[in-house]
UniProtKB/TrEMBL annotation:
One of its GO terms (molecular function) is oxidoreductase activity. GO terms for cellular component: cytoplasm. Belongs to the short-chain dehydrogenases/reductases (SDR) family. This is Uncharacterized protein. It comes from Strongylocentrotus purpuratus (Purple sea urchin).
Length: 265
């Protein structure tokens, strides 16, 4: 049995990661976190299909206390099962937002302290705090998600980033909160990759860009995207899982796209 945790699993890409893992990797126990389990109808339906391999837990990633207590509960779950690897093999930080208004700022006039803080809390601070509290579990992972054999690879940490967080790729400006929060997330990934490379058991940490995916987050902008450039969640997650399954310790700290191609910071 291998263990995967998808943080931000109520809908969109996170939900699809859960579906993919459950359907394509039957020996995986998936822990799906979301801030309102009762309102996550599709995730609840998935749980009914996979009652023994999907566990749903409540977690608002902008709340550090909740992250700490969820990590504690997961620890009990990992240690409560004698046949378990007693480690977390994969953690995907998927929750994200464009901006609390649902639309990125087009100019400085739209920038606000509140908008910046909420977006940063969800997109950058939450994933870093997840790493703080779940790092211990990841260092006990089995390297199951990754290219085998990869020397010293324990768990895998995937931070769902976005190409617009690339500073060198920024040709249009705008979307201050989203771009800045994803750039900060990428820095967190890089820092984490350094810290988690020091021990004997190395956690491979990457930032991953899913492409432009047909979800609620991108919906306001679909009319500007060519049909063949707007991925379904199924396609995007399939491609990203191929990337994840092929990681090795040398990849840690990279910013990759859904095709495994490196994106410059
Ligand atoms: N879609 C794209 O084209 C695209 C492109 C590049 C990167 N991404 C990234 O991919 C990730 C997933 O996006 P998506 O397209 O699947 O978006 P989505 O369909 O809008 O889903 C966003 C998810 O984030 C969760 N969330 C937001 N704030 C949260 C919080 N404080 N605590 C816990 N969960 C929270 C939402 O939960 P609720 O249901 O509770 O609101 C929802 O599950 C994001 O990090 C996004 O930046 C997406």
């Amino acid at each position: 049995m291998v263990y995967a945790l998808v943080q931000g699993a109520s809908r969109g890409i996170g939900l699809q990661f859960c579906r993919h893992l459950l359907n394509k990797r039957p020996a995986t126990l998936v822990i799906a976190t979301c801030r309102q389990p009762d309102g996550a109808a599709e995730l609840q339906a998935l749980q009914k299909e996979h009652p023994n391999s999907l566990q749903i837990m409540q977690l608002d990633v902008s709340n550090e206390e909740q992250i700490a207590s969820t990590a504690q509960q997961v620890k009990q779950r990992l240690h409560g099962n004698e046949s378990s690897s007693k480690g977390l093999d994969l953690l995907i930080n998927c929750a994200g937002m464009l901006h609390p208004s649902g639309r990125g700022e087009t100019s400085l006039r739209a920038v606000s302290h509140e908008g910046l803080m909420t977006t940063f809390a969800t997109n950058a601070l939450g994933p870093l705090l997840m790493a703080k509290y779940f790092g211990e579990h990841l260092t006990k992972g089995s390297g199951e998600f990754g290219q085998s054999p990869s020397e010293g690879h324990s768990g895998t940490l995937v931070n769902m980033s976005a190409r617009v967080g690339s500073i060198s790729d920024n040709g249009y400006g705008g979307w201050y909160s989203y771009r800045m929060s994803k750039s900060a997330l990428n820095m967190a990934t890089k820092n984490l990759s350094i810290e988690f490379s020091r021990g004997r058991r190395k956690v491979v940490c990457i930032s991953l860009h899913p492409g432009t995916v047909n979800t609620d987050l991108s919906r306001p902008y679909h009319k500007n995207v060519a049909e063949d450039k707007l991925f379904t969640p199924e396609y995007s997650v399939e491609r990203m899982m191929e990337v994840i399954e092929n990681l090795n310790v040398e990849d840690s700290g990279k910013f990759l796209d859904f095709a495994g191609k490196e994106i410059p910071f």
